[in-house]
Write a structure and sequence with these properties.
With 186 residues, the protein is mainly alpha-helical. It has two domains: 41 residues, no CATH class; 126 residues, no CATH class. The protein has eight helices and five strands; from the N terminus they run ββααβααααββαα. It has a three-stranded antiparallel sheet with strand order 2-1-3. Helix 3 runs antiparallel to helix 4. It is elongated.
Length: 186
């Protein structure tokens, strides 16, 4: 639902028509006339994100096999040596395997396909079903091909996609990731 806004002659920021700031501007001797003449524009309310639009992979269309959980030591060996921070984080996670917090996505940061060539090759090999936002190669749910799992759904990726979609306010992705968690028993 779009709301009427005008540009404040005082600050240059968008002000909601009928709101408190708008009323104060109308009552002002200095800015009242300019506020009345300002052109009204329909805009999305604050907090609404417009980048959510686009194709979202449906949980029904994902018919890939589920990958078996891979030991963190194998993920460490497949992570390139140039990614020192990821390797250090993974080593730290290996020391804290008994800690409950973050256990469901442990190791995903190192196993996930990185933006760029890794995601491009994953999309070429496996198709759009390895991404919940395939148009931008966002929210991958399959591990990188360097992991040796092939085109299989990784539960760590599905859980991470659901968590990030909730944080970044992508309701369509959140719903599909939740359905995939139920479908694959993640």
């Amino acid at each position: 639902m779009k709301i009427d806004y005008v540009k404040s002659p005082k600050t240059g920021k968008w002000v909601k028509v009928g709101g408190d700031v708008y009323q104060k501007l109308l009552d002002s001797k200095t800015y009242g006339a300019a506020t009345r003449r300002a052109k009204k524009v329909k805009r999305d309310p604050p907090g609404t994100k417009t980048h959510q639009k686009g194709k979202v992979t449906s949980a029904k269309s994902v018919n890939l096999a589920k990958a078996k959980p891979r030991p963190l030591s194998k993920t460490l060996t497949s992570t390139p040596k140039s990614r020192k921070a990821q390797r250090a984080k993974l080593t730290s996670q290996m020391e804290h395997t008994r800690d409950g917090r973050g256990a469901r996505t442990r190791g995903w940061a190192a196993a996930a396909p990185q933006k760029g060539s890794e995601r491009h090759t994953l999309r070429e090999e496996c198709g759009d079903v390895c991404f919940l936002k395939p148009d931008t190669e966002g929210f991958p749910i399959c591990a990188a091909l360097r992991e040796g799992q092939g085109c299989k759904v990784d539960c760590r990726g599905v859980t991470a996609a659901r968590v990030r979609a909730g944080q970044w306010k992508y309701p369509g992705v959140y719903t599909q990731a939740s359905k995939l968690e139920g479908k694959y028993g993640c």
